[in-house]
Amino acid sequence: MSKSRTIGWVLLIAAIGAAGYFGWQKYEGNKRAAEAAEKRAAARPPVPVKIAPVEKADFPVYLTGLGTVQGFNTVQVRTRVDGQIIKIAFQEGQFVKEGDTLVEIDPRPFQAVLDQAKAKKAQDEANLANANLDLQRYTRLGEFATRQQTDTQRSTVAQLTAQITSDDAAIFNAQTQLDYATIKAPISGVAGLRQVDIGNIVNAATQTGIVSIAQIEPIAVIFTAPEDQLPDIKAALAVAPPKTIALTTDGKRVLSTGTLALINNQVDTTSGTIRLKGVFDNKDHALWPGQSVSTRLLVRTLKDATVVPDDAVQHGTNGLYAFTVNQDNKAELRKIKVSQSIDGKSVIDEGLTPGQQVIVSGQYKVSPGTLVTTAVASSDQAQSKVSQE
Q: CATH: 1.10.150, 2.60.40, 1.10.287, 2.40.50. Which one for 83-211?
């Protein structure tokens, strides 16, 4: 019995010794591996990266959207009299000014009616002059002329006077019809495609126009914004007309800069959006009616915001982060929160402070603690998008 107990103790001590030996071997192995890793890290050359400073700056907050350009005024030019077109005085696509002659209709019938009205007035004026002379004669005769004769003559003078007033109205109407035979541009703008050719008969009753004219100086852009942004838009409009930018549909090139003119009087309940109208001077004709554009509406400006280039912001499984470079030229990982981003710049609410240096290029080779060599990023590299300020 004592012999078996002795053997058990021997085996237990041997097992404990073996476990201790293997544990020591593992510890020494890990220690050597860590030392080797440190030596490799020390021997590894620094990773080249490009950096940019964390800045404090005023940051404009824009609402982006899509819009359609519309002529500020659009007129379908139609004839107001019937007749044959004898002259077309404009070219398609031409910029016409208000009052320019566009089309001439054969004026001879209208001129004849005007001449007839003038002749009728001259005849009535002669009759009135004669009637006035007769009235004067009856008046001088006194008691030798009957009262009936005097009253009748006075009535004749009044009738002829009224007739001349009617003649004046007829002359004015005939002159108006004659003027309508020369169709002039009601507004300044660009003439569209001609819909009627010379020699055709046109009448006022038809709905077909002669040409359309679109006013493009100034010009309007109709665009939409989410209804939940309406309070911010109204607040900005109450201070001053907010700046509105029209860009190409890819958002890469500014076409024109204008202001917000008005907010529509109701929200579209089907889409949950509100329609807005921006007005642009458009002196260079960069905007054209019917054109699709991207829009930006300045609703407010964040004062002294913490701003970094978009290229510094990285996306990870635990959220957004950025790498900074410390005084020892080692990379440090910073978790960040971004509230606004546009034109290649992002506003950082948490995680970074002005004056720090963030890595904007070469992050895929970097991990926390990596030794880096830095070069300052150029403005084109630090800002991936063209600023539209």
A: 1.10.287
Q: Counting every residue, how long is the chain?
A: 389
What's the pLDDT score for residue 23?
Answer: 63
DSSP β-ladder status, 372-376 and 47-53: parallel
Nearest CA-CA partner of 371 in 9, 79, 42: 42
Question: Domain 63-72+214-302 adopts which CATH fold?
Answer: Elongation Factor Tu (Ef-tu); domain 3 (2.40.30)
Spatial separation of the C-alpha atoms in residues 277 and 220, rounded to whole Å: 7
C-beta of residue 132 within 8 angstroms of C-beta of residue 100: no
Q: Three-state DSSP class for 170?
A: helix
Specify the pTM: 0.69
Sheet holding 95-96, edge to edge: 74-77, 211-214, 189-191, 95-96
Closest CA to 323 of 355, 377, 369, 354: 369
**pLDDT category of residue 255 using cuts at 50, 70 and 90:** very high
Amino acid sitting at position 178 = L
